[in-house]
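re: that chain from earlier
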Amino acid sequence: TEFSILEHSLSKRLSVSVTTEGVCVPDSFKSGLYTLVNEHKWRVGETVSLDGEIAEIYGQLRQLEHFDEVISFIRNVQTNCLHVATNYVVHDGNVNSLQKYINFAVQKLGVEKINFLDLNSTGNARKNGLKVADSKKYFDELMKSYNLGDDNVKAALDGTFAAEVYRAENRLSEGCNGCP
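^ sequence. v structure.
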């Protein structure tokens, strides 16, 4: 079945995560995923592509008309005990909204983890003229979000460069994952 890899991984006591844009997900797939969750509580997660806290920003890279559907999808999978993470593709059109997005995702949607990805200039990114975000602006915005964030925000940003820099600056770690 379409779940055999997930089932095999779960049988080995591993955790699994499925990545999706949160649109065009068949009800049969959701149902199968929820069945796995019931059998393996809190070991099944979902990572959803969400690149903005409002439809207009989301629509710069994705299809604007799907924003509400993606938000509903995230809320629905959470009610079925799935861990929810998001992938946020950083670009020049959304880097200034980083802190608003993080607060929205964590405080309003209950997202547990946010992954940040660099822009690949294909598809809608190319069509809409999006560019890679200025690296200093990206660094500053993510650091500000981490430093001002509450414990839930810090947990969602764990594993990002902001968390590593914060720990190093505050002497809470020996270095960044084995750096000399």
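The mean pLDDT is 90.
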